[in-house]
Fold:
Amino acid sequence: MDPDISVIVGEFLTSYTWQYERVSENLLVARFAVESSKAELSLLIGLDRNWIGLTVMPLIQAIPNRVDTLAKQIGRINYDLKWVRLAQTSTGDVVLCLDLPSKQLTAPAFHLALDVITYYAEKLHGDLSLLAGVTKGEQS
Structure:
């Protein structure tokens, strides 16, 4: 991994007016609010030589008796998504992912990626919470 990519992405986050934590050389974490549900979500930013992976984790926490229902809906929803994809972790949590090539990354492209992932987090969080049986007080 280019050792400067974490510094560059950190600068991009700062210019987007987001605070972040550097967990390691190849992992940054930022938090953002979902206005419609008043939830605060974590955005994990994984960095390597070729890709930058943005992951809202979790978008929805697993409810044990709803994991299969969510899995079916994720497949249907992913068909209509652009740039992003939903996935389930091994524990059943729903995550929202977006990958960017790290070569020649610019601030406007990174900011657009943040706009896209936060747009979809806002759009999907409430509906998936209802489908998962999460009440407002239990949301992420």
The helical segments are 5-15, 67-80, 107-132. Residues 5-138 form a domain with the Yope Regulator; Chain: A, fold (CATH 3.30.1460.10). The chain has a mean pLDDT of 90. The two ends are 32 Å apart (CA to CA).
